[in-house]
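I hope you will forgive my troubling you with a question about protein structure. The matter concerns a single protein, recorded as an amino acid sequence and a row of backbone structure tokens. Please examine both parts with care and let me know of anything in them that strikes you as inconsistent. Here, with my thanks, is the record as I have it:
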Amino acid sequence: MGVFMNILKSVAEFVQNGATVFQSASLGEYRNHSERMSELRKEMIDTEKERSDDRKRLTEDRKRVESDVRKAFNKICLEL
């Protein structure tokens, strides 16, 4: 009996939450953000990005891709 009540309670909470979100959306209130979303947004905005850092990352990525392609090509050639 206890398990059934817990399931029923969970379903009721889900329906209630859905109704609340639908009501807010229908009133045009879309800006309800959680703390985690606010933290992520702040982290993205606060980090300073420099072009030199971007170039460095792109260069490293290109070298890794070249290495992977070379390994794959050698593996294919050696199998033939």
